[in-house]
UniProtKB/TrEMBL annotation:
This is Uncharacterized protein (TIGR00288 family). Signal peptide: none annotated. GO terms for molecular function: RNA nuclease activity. It comes from Hungatella effluvii. InterPro entries: LOTUS-like, NYN, OST-HTH/LOTUS_dom.
Amino acid sequence: MNDKKFAVLIDSDNISAKYISYILAEMTKYGVITYKRIYGDWTSSQMGKWKQEILENSIAPIQQFSNTVGKNATDSALIIDAMDLLYTDNVDGFCIVSSDSDFTKLASRLRESGKEVIGMGEDKTPKSFRAACTVFTNLEILLDQDDESVSGVTVGREVIEQDIASIILENDDMNKATGLGEIGNRLVKKYSDFDVRSYGYSSLSKFLEEMDNFELKKSNNVVTVRIKDNRTRKQELDDYAIKLVRNSGKNGLELAALGNGMHRKYGDFKVKDYGYSTFSKFVQSISQLEVRENKTNNKVVFIRQG
């Protein structure tokens, strides 16, 4: 991946010069930067902080006079340059640095042409632009990645844990081990702005090591991830659920009541610890139980007959 060539195109109108060293350092993860261009009105006094940075980092400034209200000139120039570079086919991907949704269509168009698009912008960046990029990184994270109070987390940790468990269970069904790299790639495909630094971790492996439900194993420089073996506890939970339903009699036990009973007995019980996204799916995994809907559309659990 390190031999991929990228064009870094920066919209200076809404990106601060303080981020530039972090932007360029972050791009070393993806490949080699062959074009570095920044767009703005360099006759404006507001561009003073950028002028020193573009000299020190050898970034080509592209002049756009503010002849109209707003920043349409800057946006148009960046888009035209990006399309010119696309058609010359001299790069493998683009890094578009902006917090502006106006570049959403550009990012989509570049990806349609098979190019990788790395988006970077502040936390205010609209979701439309984030989703259009292959990967999107919050610049505040790059600036404050050592700060435990990093903001910008867009997906809850519990949701990420459930996604990881689903990936592992899916591979288990195919008798396939789950690599750490595959988990990272699939999370980024689902959430283009997923970044473990948003949660206060420096690497995906550290992120997973702090989760109670997963084990990491390294063999010949390959790291695989699996769900911890909870089979003994699962059987105990299954037996108790069956007992509660059986004691409820022939009319069965409403799913919600069964859940309450399970939590009263096992205060730390969480279905996600066993690879299930909902309590209903957990109950359906118990072969002796079945879930049906009654006349009022409530879910009721019965002992399976036959």
